[in-house]
Amino acid sequence: MAFKKRVVGVIGLGHVGAHVAFNLGVLGIADEVKLCDVKSEKLVSERQDMMDAVMFMPHRVNYTIASYEELADCDVIVNAIGDITLCASGNRDDEMHFTVPQVADYIPKVMAGGFQGIIINITNPCDVITDLIAKKSGLPKGHVFGTGTGLDSARLVSAISQQTGLDHHSFSAYMMGEHGNSQIVPWSLIKFGGKSLAELEQNPAYVFDKARVQDETIHAGWVTYSGKHCTEYGISMTAATMVRAVLRDERKIMAASAPLDGEYGETGIFCGVPSVIGANGIEEVIEYNLPEQEMKDFKACCATIRANIAKAEEFWK
Ligand SMILES: NC(=O)c1ccc[n+]([C@@H]2O[C@H](COP(=O)([O-])OP(=O)(O)OC[C@H]3O[C@@H](n4cnc5c(N)ncnc54)[C@H](O)[C@@H]3O)[C@@H](O)[C@H]2O)c1
C-alpha cells in the first residue's frame, strides 16, 4: 500500500529559504523537500548539509534539487527568493525592483510544469509579491497567501510576554496591515485567557508600556538585521507553521497576507489579517468590528499596499 508523501518546495535557498527547508524536516512536517535556487553550487551544498542532519530528524526526509517545472508535484511551495542586501535601508519596498521581475518571470514556469497546490510567499515586499504570485499563477482564491503580519504577530506576542511575564501561548495578539513600516497593533483584539486588555490592566502587575511594545514589534526586524544582516529563525518558523496548517488541514487562526474581497470594506489587495488556514490555504478572513481609530489606521495600511501594488506593476506589466 502506498501512502501519499507530503512534498514541499522551497524557491530561494538564502538565509530564509534554507531555514524553512531545515525546519520542515526538524519539525516533522514534510516527507520530501524540493530545493530550487538560481545558485546551483549553493543548492548542492545546502542539500548535502540537510541530508547530513536527517539522521537526527523525527522521521525520514528526502531533500532533492528541482527546477521550477519540477516543483509540479509539490503540495505546497514556499517562495523565499530575494536579495536581502537591498533591505539595508530599513524599507522592505527597496527590494521590489529586484524581486518583482524575478517572480513575474518564474511563476509562469512553475505553473507550466502543472503545479496545482498552495503557494505561501515570504519574499518582500510581502503583500505586493503575494498579489503578483496570485495574478501570475491564476490559482484559486486563497491558494496563494503570504506570511504577511504572521511574523510581526509573533514579535508582538514576544514583546508583550517579556513585559507582562505571561507565557506566549496564554494570550492572543495580532499585527494587522502591511508587512512593513505602516503595520498596526489592534489593541482591541488582544485577549488574555479570555480577558480584554482593559480588564487585564485592572491588575497593576500586568500594566505594560504600549508604546514600547508597539515600537519593539515594528522595529524587531531591524534589531535582528542590524547585527547579522538577515532575519531567519522567526520567519522560517512562521512559514513552517503555515505549511503544517495546510498539510494537516488544521484550520488554524494566524495572521497572514490574505486576499481581501469586501472584508473591512477593501477589495483587490493582499493584506495582513487574522485568517483561518487549512487545506485550501486561506479558508476565511476573520473580520473584526475594529474601533474607529484602529479601523482608520488599518485602512491607511491598505492604501499603502494598494499604492505599492500599482508601483510594482511598473516592473512587470
Ligand atoms: N515576509 C517576511 O516576514 C520576511 C522576513 C525575512 C525576510 N523576508 C524576505 O525573504 C526574502 C529572502 O531573504 P533572505 O535573507 O533569504 O535573502 P538572501 O539574499 O539570503 O537569499 C535570497 C536567495 O534567493 C535566491 N534567488 C534570487 N533570485 C532567484 C530566482 N529568480 N529563482 C530562484 N532563486 C533566486 C538567491 O540565489 C538567494 O539564494 C527577501 O525578499 C527578504 O526581504 C521576508
Q: What would you note in describing this structure?
A:
Belongs to the LDH/MDH superfamily. LDH family. This is L-lactate dehydrogenase. InterPro entries: L-lactate/malate_DH, L-lactate_DH_AS, Lactate/malate_DH_C, Lactate/malate_DH_N, Lactate_DH/Glyco_Ohase_4_C, NAD(P)-bd_dom_sf. Residues 8-146 form the Lactate/malate dehydrogenase N-terminal domain. The chain is α/β, with parallel strands linked by helices. It folds into two domains: 7-146, 3-Layer(aba) Sandwich (Rossmann fold); 150-316, L-2-Hydroxyisocaproate Dehydrogenase, Chain A, domain 2, CATH 3.90.110. It has nine helices and twelve strands. Strand 10 and strand 11 (267-278) form a beta hairpin. The structure holds nicotinamide-adenine-dinucleotide.
Notable traits:
2 domains, 317 residues, six-stranded parallel β-sheet, binds nicotinamide-adenine-dinucleotide, 9 helices, three-stranded antiparallel β-sheet, Rossmann fold, globular, L-2-Hydroxyisocaproate Dehydrogenase, Chain A, domain 2, alpha/beta, 18% strand
Layout of helices and strands, plus pairs?
Blueprint: E1 7-11, H1 15-26, E2 32-36, H2 40-53, E3 62-65, E4 76-79, H3 96-112, E5 118-121, H4 126-137, E6 144-146, H5 150-164, E7 171-172, E8 191-192, E9 195-196, H6 197-200, H7 210-228, H8 233-247, E10 252-261, E11 267-278, E12 281-285, H9 292-316
Parallel strand pairs: 1-2, 1-4, 2-3, 4-5, 5-6
Antiparallel strand pairs: 7-8, 8-9, 10-11, 11-12
Helix pairs in contact: 1-8, 3-4, 3-9, 4-9, 5-7, 5-8
This protein binds nicotinamide-adenine-dinucleotide.
